[in-house]
Amino acid sequence: MIDKPINNRAWLFVVPVLAFVLFSSIIPVMTVVNYSLQDTMGENNFFWNGDSWFRDLLNPATTIGARFNDALFRTLAFSFVCLLVEVPLGIAIALCVPRRGWSVGISLVIIALPMLIPWNVVGTIWQIFTREDIGLFGAALTGLGLHYNVTQDAVSAWVTIVVIDVWHWTPLVILLSYAGLRAIPDAYYQAARIDGASRWAVFANIELPKLQKVLVIAVLLRFMQTFMIYTEPFVVTGGGPGSATTFLSIDLDKIALGQVDLGNAAAMSLVYYLITLTVCWVFFTIMTQLDRRRDV
Amino acid sequence: MRSGVASRIVFAAYLVLLMLPIYWLIILSLRKNEDIMSGLVFYPHHPTIEKYVAIFNDPTWMHAFGVSLSYVALNTIISVTVALPAAYAFNRYHFIGDKHLFFWLLTNLMVPAAVFAMPFFQLYYAVGLFDTIWAVVLAHCLFNVPLAVWILEGFVGGVPREIDETAAIDGYSFPHFFVRIFLPLIANGIGVTAFFCFMFSWVEQLLATTLTSAHALPFAAVMTRAYSASGMDWSLLSAAGVLTMIPGAVVIWFVRNHIAKGFALGRV
Question: Are A150 and A236 in contact, with CB atoms under 8 Å apart?
Fold first, then answer.
């Protein structure tokens, strides 16, 4: 880590990567920046509009500002709820995954399976599963006498999207935690047994601290993914009922592709992008610091 | 100490809950529509594979399946190939701007696809790649190339630097060393990386459907054919859904022993 030789010719190794990523990154970003600073009267005539799209967007008194505020709050609330469920659940299940024997491989394959299903198919699976006429989940909840209707009841829609996300992505937390747990040497457990430590003490003093780094990765990956969620609510609720599950991505899609309101959409894209960038930067800083602490 | 009965029961219960929606999809795919609407059953009383046969006999479905597999395969090959030298450079050398570059690459993993859907459409339309598999291949490079660099960098770090030096002293040229000696050493890492590229390209649908319209529609987009004016063809939709899970299940089986490590991005 410390004694890496300085070699600027290493740039040559990075050029292919740059070529591919730049093509798909810089040009689209600049397109968005362009739209965010201009307005149009149609006919492809654009004129300079300064920062007014951004001022509207960040001012909750305007229609678009209020809409953005609501969607942002909704998305943050969604991310928070998902993390609150998925991280503890993921750690708990990871502790139960078998460590050796024939069942390890098959268990991991089953756990990982939901993550390999195309996202709109995940939506379809749950669209069927939550219907009260042909879906087990919907029928069971209705059978219990609960008022459950994904397309008409906001609470049902929210619960459903959270359940879908938990079903779809808790496996990521499980696999990360499992990898972290596997990396703990047996000697730690033996020492704990000699000391007569309780199961809880082993968890709190050995396992949890050792999981710190994978949990940082898990929390931040899960935050980013829930913050960007699009396909599952799009398929299952379409953002409804009303705008109950209209998260940022869905709202952006409605404004950009539905209303073709380019200025507002572009300003919103950039603010959205900057929020994710900020979080990514915090993530990167925490990770490199953990790395450094480990090296010392 | 840790393989108690309670934890086994919890784990088994979790697996059952996890599989339930998938099991439900499989049963629906094996039932006729009239049968589905007639009530809930826990296993198909009159199983039929007619919808699967219909999908396999329909050139549109099969073409779309081929399209999906081709862009995923091409994207995986490109991502891993260009990421390998970069991962080596990031791990072995300091160079001007290396940290900033690495961070910038990672930021591309965090971009909401919805932000890029419209500009991507315009870009690929302008360069004449719209509605070809290459549009999807290149678009998915946006997040798969940085992901591949990140994962591979972890695996490159697992190979001691002494090996590079010994090879240089023994008179191996760098390309010879890299291809013949170094790549076999990180074969597992390449497998895991390829798996992740496959996974993210296979599951991503927003860009894949935005950038295609007729000739290069991915399989999962063709599923909208099950939504028709005469009502939903639940059975067909379920059968198509089941088919989309098969490639993932096959690929995952090959990397099952390395997958946990890969999920920790080779950095645990």
Answer: yes
